[in-house]
Amino acid sequence: MGKVYDQAYYKRALEGGEAVSAIAKDIGVFNILPHEILKPYISNYSILFPVKNMLSEKYTLIPNASGTLSFAYDGKSIKGELWGASSRINIIGSEANNYKFLLLVEFNPCGLYQFTSFNQKEIADTRIDLDTVNKSLNTSLCNAIDQAIDANDLANGLNTTFLSHMGDAYQTNTIVRLTRKIHDTNGFLHIKELSLSEHYSERHLNRLFCHYIGMNVKLFSRIVRINNAIEQMKNSKSRCALISQQLGYYDQSHFINDFKAICGVSPRQYLKNMSDFSN
Question: What is the Cβ-side half-sphere exposure of residue 246, based on CA atoms within 13 angstroms?
């Protein structure tokens, strides 16, 4: 069994200056950043060493309009899965606790398209065996994980694989730029404004977002708004009424309705059980 499957190795790597940062090293969660060229498309590589009851059975992933590749090691073999861009919650606690090692390639919005080149709307909110949709990518990534001798070697193997599987970035970079415009307004840039500034029709913008991200502009913007709200709720003791006002909502009830639609619970319920959620 290689070092990449050894949690103790990552704790030592933190002290040795390797390409690893700790999110929560005491419970075995580590991060590796991608190559600079990949950063517009890949957010990070997350490494988890689940232990019994590390995550509650209700542990829930909040939608972030992005895709993920997961690689799970059960002590015998690695299985790669593709998770389409999320617009609905995913409850994963009981499943994740069963693995010895998990590597998650967490994409930025539109990032998954850069390496798969198929209509993201068709795979949104689905989980698919990566081997069935892109055998070459799955084999290369599984080999990079299994053959890595240390954290730097793992990072290099992942980066080399993704760099060699990148498609034409011209159109993708256009979509990335549009998503950044929406992020810069905390999700409150109306499609009419985006249409005027970019000289695209609203219909064409929705077509582009569905194809490259997996959802229309309105849903994407709503997810951006709620994820921004969650970050404020994590880092602030402000009441929901103040947060909704700071984020630009018309009133608190609109904010609560948006929050429930994306997270499945009210802001109050989220704050009460914050450790059961991840965004």
Answer: 14
Inter-residue contact 160 to 34 (CB < 8 Å): no
CA distance 34 to 270: 31
Confidence of residue 17 (pLDDT cuts 50, 70, 90): very low
Please, what is the Cα angle at 23 between 22 and 27, to 5 degrees?
90
Q: Are 132 and 7 in contact (CB under 8 A)?
A: no
Q: Model pTM greater than 0.90?
A: no
What pLDDT is attached to residue 159? 97
- pLDDT digits 0-9 by tens, 105-152: 999 999 999 999 999 999 999 999 999 999 999 999 999 998 888 778
CATH superfamily for 169-278 is Homeodomain-like (1.10.10.60)
Domain residue ranges in the chain: 3-164, 169-278
CA 138 to chain centre: 18
Question: Amino acid identity of 159?
Answer: N
Dihedral sign for Cα atoms in the order 185, 187, 188, 192: positive
Look up residue 14 and give its two tokens: 């933190």
> Side chain identity at 185, as an amino acid letter?
T
Give the E-state strand segments of the chain in sequence order. Answer: 21-24, 29-32, 42-48, 60-61, 68-73, 78-83, 90-91, 101-107, 127-129, 277-278
- At 36, the amino acid letter reads E
